[in-house]
Amino acid sequence: MKASTRNTAVLVLCMLIAAYPVIKWGMGISPDSVAYLSAAYNFSAGNGFILYDNSYMTNWPILYPALIGLLNFIPININTSIFLFQCIIGCLSFYFVQKHLSGKYSKILLLSIFLFPPFFKLFLMVWSESLFILLIVLAIFNFTKNIQNTATTLLYILFFSLACLTRYAGVFLVLGLLLSEFFVFRNIKKSLLLCVSLIPIGVNLLINFRY
Predict the structure, then answer these.
(1) How many C-beta atoms lie closer than 10 Å to residue 187's C-beta?
(2) Residues 135 and 163: beta-carbon distance below 8 Å
């Protein structure tokens, strides 16, 4: 069995082991989780991104609760569907990072990072960090490809846009790359394309100002 396949199997096995307590007692919850879940419930009910206190959700971007809201339409327990969603995100993140590593020991190190309890916990909580990591990984891989074409350009614009709609930290990452491309590498085209990726979160923030 190839090392990459074996490492992926180990990660999946650990997530399956974690499935029993999560399905029995529920996903980990924090104040942020409560906000996500309440906004997701109202979104799936057609009421928009309204929190438990009837205020509009402005402290968090909308993508993660929107996706959780869509899970409400799957005919299985919402707790189980969120856990499966987080597991899929974790496995995809691991797969795409591992795909770009060449050495056996680097892949083992990657597996140890993913199984490190504080990091593994991200996928057992109703937190947006897990989705954010996956989107940033996909965005960076397409952004740094040596051969740039229309497909890779559209992909990194898409993934950066979605990352910003998942966590506001994505905005600062994109701004950092934008300034670097403009002032250090003098790449005006990439700078403008990075500006395009900020348009969706800009619209989200403008809507927030109404509330």
Answers:
(1) 14
(2) yes
Cα separation, 142 vs 152, whole angstroms: 5
Strand partners, 90: none
Residue carrying the six token digits 């960090």:
129
Residue 96 CA to residue 149 CA, distance in Å, equals: 20
Q: Residue 203 is which amino acid?
A: V
- pLDDT by position in tens, the chain (length 211): 576 678 888 888 888 888 888 877 889 999 999 999 999 999 999 999 999 999 999 999 999 999 999 999 999 888 889 999 999 999 999 999 998 888 888 888 999 999 999 999 999 999 999 999 999 999 999 999 877 899 999 999 999 999 999 999 999 999 999 999 999 999 999 999 999 999 999 999 999 888 7
C-alpha to C-alpha distance for 69 and 20, rounded to whole angstroms: 23
Structural domain spans, the chain: 1-127, 128-211
Calpha distance 98→86 (Å, rounded): 18
